[in-house]
Design goal:
With about 90 residues, the protein is an all-beta fold. The chain has one domain (about 5-80). It has strands spanning about 5-10, 15-25, 35-40, 55-60, 70-75, 80-85, 85-90. The strands form two sheets. Strands 1-2-5-3-4 form a five-stranded mixed barrel. Strands 6-7 form a two-stranded antiparallel ribbon.
């Protein structure tokens, strides 16, 4: 089995609240706890959750979820612009 990534979504610019489990696609290198990523479908061709940046809380071997969604990812940062509707929007400061 491939590793499970535990992530947190951001609300009002801060990562907080509930955590969610996603299983990594075969052959994908696990991110480190604390990394900020954008989730992609298992073959890496489309963004998931509108390309929202999420923070990796933990990487573990198993999940309590019956069948977590399989993903791949790209590393990101809070300095990157937002993606909404496939359009890149500059971050407001």
């Amino acid at each position: 089995m491939t590793p499970v990534v535990v992530v947190q979504f951001k609300r009002n610019g801060e990562f907080c609240g509930r955590t969610y489990d996603y299983r990594l696609a075969q052959g994908v290198t696990p991110p480190k706890a604390g990394d900020i990523i954008r989730m992609l479908n298992d073959d890496g061709t489309q963004v998931i959750c509108n390309g929202t940046r999420v923070q990796v809380v933990a990487v573990k071997e198993n999940s309590d979820c019956i069948q977590p969604q399989v993903i791949s990812y790209v590393k990101s940062s809070m300095d990157e612009p937002s993606i909404r509707g496939g359009i890149i929007h500059e971050r407001r400061t």
